[in-house]
Amino acid sequence: MAHVEHVLEEVEATFFMTPVKNMMASALVDGWERRLKDIHDKQVTLNAHGAVGRAVDRLESGVDGLMRRVSELRRQRAGSVPVEPDLSMYEMGWRPPVLGGDHVAGVGNHDRVEFAIVSMLDGYAHGEATEAPRVGLYGIGGCGKSTACAEVATCERVRTLFPRGTVWVQLNDTSTSETVATAVLALVYQLCGEAATKRCQRLTRSKDFVSLVASDMQASLVADASKWLIIIDDVRFDQVGMLTQLLLVVPRAAPVLFTTRSEMVVALVTGAIRMAISCWPEDDARALLTKAIGKRPSIGTRPSKNDSTFSAEEETAWVRRVLDLTHCHVLSVSIVAALLSARCGMWRPVVAALEHQWTDPSFQRPLSGLNPRRSVRATLDTSLELLPDDVHRRAFAALGVLSANEQIGLHVLDRLWRPQLCVVGGASEGGCLSLPQTHCVEDHAVHPGVLRLVDALVRAGLLHQEVADGDLAGVVLHPVVCGYAHSLLGDGFVAAHQRLVDEYARHCPADHADAHGWLGYHFWTTADDGYWCNNVARHAVASEDIFALASLATDEWYAARARTGSTVGHQADVRLVLTSLRAMVDDTDHWVHDSPVLLGAAHWGLAMAFLRRLGCKTAANQEAALILLRRGLDEVSQAAAPLLWAEMQNDLGNVYSYRVSGDKAANFQKAVRCYYHALEVRMQETLAWAETQHCLGMAYADREGGDKVANMEEALAYFRRALDVRTRDAAPLQWADTTLEMGAAYSERVDGDKAVNLEEAVACYGRALEVWTRDQLPLQWVAAQHSLGRAFTQRVDGDKSANLEEAVACYRRALEVWTRATVPQQWASTQLKLAEV
């Protein structure tokens, strides 16, 4: 016991007398702990009675107190020796990614965005700009934004301009405020060194951490900041705050590139220079395909369509098809190239699969575990997930029926999104900006939900918005995004097309449609909004709407297309209608064969398309139309669909009236018989009735047999009856058409005074030209000018020389539209008339 107390006294004396410092303190403390533990273990074995018990209690108390003092001393020692912070995490992982072997260099290509960026950086480095540029590179997923910046960062020219190097900050879906703080410290470490980083690390718990670091960076005046290049990759719209924080820390002398899918991110960075990227130039896409099949172009050159790298067969069979299908979208071309390489250059199966499965998720799966390439679909799925809810995703999918690379007006979106617009708003709006309740374009109100949907899609990087006069004018859909949206529609593809067709026809007059709603599509009455006329045929074909297709083969639709001067577009419409309806009629298993009325309508529309193909006076087209109209009338009875039956009878009469083959007199009699059949249904004083009256007038005016005097009088009588209904107020275009034909009848009239008849003809042509203006109806205007010129050459009244001068002026005006390049026959005819004058 005396020994135990002696040890205790020794320990106490040693503890209070020994100076504890550095390594000596550590050794002493470790020794004390071992000795105190031995004493403690021994004391528990002693008897706790009497003097011994009291000594044990004293010993236990003393040992516990000393152990607490030793533990406190150890904590003090640990705090007195600082631990060096690990800064290695700021050294690695902040460099540009390594470019793969499939990359095609672009810094030397004037058509690539890499060249434009390097040129801008070069200008700054040589003092052409006072402030370092902040460049925002935006485009859809997979268009090559990151690889473009990686090439810029690693090219020899940029390494020379920025010898300190490039700091690459990579954002992603999991980026948070903590990862931004790490990126801030990495920037400090790279730009200012270890001492500044250690100083800033002590500020990480402060809520004003970024502001404090930015102030510290500005105060330190980084001398060589201009020798650094900063790149911030893949900034989402909801990460704009992170981007702003990072830009606060970057010295103004250091240029910054940042990439994003959303153009709105660039717009929110004050002073940022916008650069868009959508695809590669064709020559660069060809270069990658060349590598993939194992060919090598000449050193220092890129293969082009004019090179001999590909044979004529290869160019037609697969190169052109690949370029068209991928739209030279970088990731798309890279995937095709990788598939070609994996098959050792066997391009036939790859291209065949490409055309049938390009939007299928399984086609673009990773090629192997060693090459986990992301598919185009997976890349765009990331953008889709940025939308706030399924309402917005369904709205995006509906865009798959629209045209790519074409400005789509808000009215088109209003019609397409009508089902979504009733639910967009409130909770579905997410973080959308506060927008006005209405939006007007060209005096028409647009649902405010259109702007909200556009806003969300632009933020996600799925749309490009077009702004004009400070307002949203429309959107543009990238071809790859359009194909992606199309693939999302699935079974709703036909319904989306049909919805758009119905929305555009919603306010068209029904023209007293019968109980079945036949002839309900009068698209020619819908004002052209810059989209509809050029795309209605495509939507009608996709929806397989028989009556929509047939309506596009009518005279009225031709006149509507001619009003916009788009006869080439009309021929494109006719080709689509022909192809679609012919496929339906020839396929006996098609659902159209289940309905006699629909099958008859398909024959009618196909006949009208034949008549509109390359002119209605082509004998082969006329004979085909006659056969089809007769088959249509075999399917459709007057009782089943009276209006359709009457329409087919009227059109059959027109074919007989202008028929090139067969006996002229017999054709005339058949035409008149068909017109009178049509009048059995067409009610008097209606526009349809007036149309048949006009057609009868045309038949009698062109009749070759019979009494010429009587024929012309009959024609004039029918024209007058037509004009009783076709008034200038009720139907101005039809009024002008009948007025012009009446003028032609007066110029050919035998009965009556010739001078009076010609004056009537000149007056009719003049009245028609009041409606048929050159700006709105150039084709009709030029026809009227030609007819007026001929009337002036025949005119009896007035000064003869003045009449001839008027005729010459009319022919010259006609030649302003009828050029040799566009309509050589009409041009030649007018030239002959001028020669005769």
UniProtKB/TrEMBL annotation:
InterPro entries given in the database record: Disease_R_plants, NB-ARC, P-loop_NTPase, TPR-like_helical_dom_sf
Pfam family, one: NB-ARC
Gene Ontology terms, MF aspect: ADP binding
GO biological process per UniProt: defense response to other organism
Residues in NB-ARC domain copies: 134-295
Protein's name in the database: NB-ARC domain-containing protein
Organism: Porphyra umbilicalis (Purple laver)
